[in-house]
Design goal:
mainly beta, single chain, 3 helices, 4-stranded antiparallel β-sheet, about 350 residues
């Protein structure tokens, strides 16, 4: 996939540059693009986070937790990891094992499964469920590790639980996105309007009334009935990379990559939030919705942006080395919404 994306970017670079200024939002974005790679006054290390709550990081086949004071703890060798709803536990995966962990790294329980992945944990204070994918298909298991069962065969891709007490899961099936009640098995709605596959990301708004679906060439926001209420269709050669709801709102920010430039922008207005040369990999809002973390792989930096006035930018350099990683670390989540 990385080689394919690079080839696409190279092939359409000239067309993107020529067409970038066709619309007023496009001109505004281009004018705000940073020519240098990286923020010049970036801090040399992550001394602290700008907002409360720990970060969960995946780097060099290991999971890490970063506390608000900047301290880091390596949890162990895992292919991926994600938070439980209230940050009390984590679900992690190895090559043939699914595990529930304490934030300190100790194991609560484990299941032997072939190539588990995309694990997501959701629920209330007293009733939680984990969804994941293995070679048999899409599966669900209770938060205590019991009752593991197959929900749908041969499904793969990102998963997203609808917030709240309802056991409703969004997932990708063939050429559509489905929302299904995992208790009754009933499919609540299906959507594929204008989407391109594969789907890169699924995310619910905090209130569970909107579902964000990101693919490389299309972005859609669905309401609770499966109707498209917002969308983005980038021009030829421009790629959607990631998108996220601001916590507590239906406001969406997204990353577009066009040629040698990446831009974070507001979906509704098209107004740019931050631009730079090279590759932005992901977005992650702080739990309080005040700060936006942007992964800038080309610069090996994390950039923290506070979009609201007074606007502020904080950057941290040398991210890969801080996690003993040859590749750029991936943010798995900033815990936890209150």
């Amino acid at each position: 996939p990385g080689r394919l994306a690079a080839a696409l970017v190279a092939a359409v670079l000239a067309a993107i540059v020529a067409g970038a200024a066709l619309s007023p939002p496009g001109r505004a974005v281009v004018e705000r693009i940073r020519e240098a790679v990286g923020v010049e006054d970036a801090e040399p290390a992550l001394f602290r986070l700008p907002a409360p709550g720990p970060l969960l990081i995946h780097a060099e086949d290991a999971a890490w937790i970063v506390r608000p004071d900047g301290s880091r703890r390596r949890l162990g060798a895992y292919r991926e990891a994600s938070w439980s709803p209230f940050g009390r536990y984590l679900v992690a995966a190895r090559a043939n094992e699914l595990l529930a962990l304490e934030p300190g790294g100790s194991t609560r329980w484990s299941l032997a499964r072939r190539a588990p992945g995309h694990a997501r944990w959701a629920g209330t204070q007293t009733d939680t469920t984990i969804a994941y994918v293995d070679r048999t298909g899409l599966r669900v298991v209770a938060g205590d590790g019991t009752g593991d069962r197959l929900l749908s065969p041969a499904e793969d891709g990102p998963l997203a639980w609808r917030p709240g007490a309802r056991h409703e899961l969004a997932y990708v099936s063939a050429s559509e996105v489905r929302v299904q009640d995992t208790e009754s098995g009933r499919v609540l709605w299906r959507g594929n309007r204008g989407l391109n596959f594969p789907v890169l990301a699924l995310e619910w708004s905090t209130d569970g009334r909107r579902l964000l679906v990101v693919s490389a060439y299309a972005l859609r926001v669905f309401d609770e009935r499966g109707r498209v209420v917002a969308q983005d269709d980038p021009s030829d050669g421009t790629l959607e990379v990631d998108a996220a709801f601001r916590p507590g709102t239906h406001e969406v920010v997204a990353i577009r990559r066009h040629g040698s430039q990446s831009t974070v922008f507001h979906l509704r207005s098209g107004k740019p939030v931050f631009s730079g040369t090279g590759v932005f990999t992901e977005l992650e809002w702080s739990p309080d919705g005040r700060w936006l973390l942007i992964g800038w792989e080309t610069a090996d930096q994390w950039v923290f942006v506070r979009p609201a006035a007074p606007r502020r930018i904080r950057a941290v350099a040398g991210i890969s080395a801080q996690f003993d990683s040859r590749g750029f670390p991936r943010v798995e989540g900033w815990c936890c919404p209150r």
